[in-house]
Write a structure and sequence with these properties.
alpha+beta, 7-stranded antiparallel beta sheet, 4-stranded antiparallel beta sheet, 13 strands, about 15% helix, binds N-(carboxycarbonyl)-S-(naphthalen-2-ylmethyl)-L-cysteine, binds fe (iii) ion
C-alpha cells in the first residue's frame, strides 16, 4: 500500500527518491547511532554562517568536520576535537541505497568518507544552498528519520524557481548525483504531527547525508 502510494521516483535527472527505504529496525539503528555520535568528542552544534547567524539545525559530523564552507578533521569552530571516524557500516548502507537508486556498478564505485548529520527541531529549516565543498562529483545519499519535511529541490543555476517540493518522511532515502549533484535545495519546513516515536524520536527530524569529500590528510585531493 505504502509503496503503491509513494513509489520510487526520479525528482529530476539523477535525483532519485526511495520512499520508505529504511524499515523500523533500520530507523532505530540510526537513532541509536545518533545518540552515540552526539555523545562523542564533538557535540551537536549550530554552525555559524559567515554573516554571523547560527544555522537552526544542529550538526554532528563523521569522518570529516564541515564548517562553513570547508572540511577539516578537527572541529575548530566547536572544541577543536577530532571527529569520530566514518563507520564502515554506514558506507555499506550508502552503497545498498545507491544500488537501489542507480545500479550495482554505481554502488560498487561509491566510497563516501563523511556523513553530515543534522538535527531539525520542529521549527528548524535550511535555506536554499548548493553542496559544493566536496572536491568530487560523487553522489550524495540522504537518509531521513523522524518528522516529515518539505524538501525543496531547485536547479543548478539559481536559488529561486523553478523548484519542486517533495515530502521526505521517516525512512526515506534520496540519492543526488549526476545532473542533480549541484542543484540548489533546502528544507522550508518540518510538518507538524509527523514524528516517528516508534523509531525512538518523539519529536524532530534527523537527516544524514553521506558524501565523498575527495580530500586526503596530506592536504591534497584524492583524485
Ligand atoms: C541535492 N540537507 O545537509 S538532504 C544538507 O533534508 C541538506 O536535511 C537537507 O541539504 C535535509 O546539506 C537535504 C538532501 C540533499 C543533500 C545534498 C544534496 C540534497 C542535495 C546535494 C546536492 C543536491
Ligand atoms: Fe545540502
Amino acid at each position: 500500500m505504502t509503496l503503491f502510494e509513494r513509489p520510487k521516483a526520479e525528482i529530476a535527472p539523477g535525483a532519485v527518491h526511495l520512499p520508505g527505504r529504511l524499515d523500523l529496525a533500520g530507523r532505530r539503528r540510526l537513532v541509536e547511532a545518533y545518540a552515540q555520535w552526539t555523545a562523542g568528542p564533538v557535540p551537536a552544534h549550530a554552525a555559524v554562517l559567515p554573516g554571523g547567524h547560527p544555522m537552526s539545525v544542529r550538526m554532528v559530523c563523521l569522518g570529516w568536520h564541515w564548517s562553513p564552507y570547508r572540511y577539516t578533521r578537527t572541529a575548530d569552530d566547536v572544541n577543536g576535537a577530532r571527529v569520530l571516524d566514518f563507520p564502515d557500516w554506514l558506507g555499506d548502507l550508502g552503497r545498498r541505497v545507491l544500488a537501489d537508486a542507480y545500479d550495482e556498478d554505481a554502488a560498487a564505485a561509491y566510497r563516501p568518507d563523511t556523513a553530515l548529520v543534522n538535527w531539525y527541531h520542529p521549527s528548524a529549516r535550511m535555506g536554499m544552498h548548493q553542496d559544493k565543498d566536496e572536491v568530487t562529483d560523487a553522489p550524495v545519499v540522504s537518509l531521513s528519520i523522524g518528522a516529515s519535511c518539505v524538501f525543496r529541490f531547485g536547479n543548478p543555476g539559481t536559488r529561486g524557481k523553478p523548484y519542486t517540493d517533495v515530502t521526505l518522511a521517516s525512512g526515506d532515502a534520496v540519492v543526488f548525483g549526476r545532473e542533480s549533484r549541484f542543484a540548489y535545495h533546502g528544507v522550508p519546513r518540518i510538518l507538524p504531527g509527523t514524528a516517528d516515536p516508534d523509531a525512538g524520536l518523539p519529536a524532530g527530524r534527523i537527516n544524514i547525508t553521506l558524501r565523498s569529500t575527495g580530500l586526503t590528510d596530506n592536504g591534497g585531493h584524492a583524485d
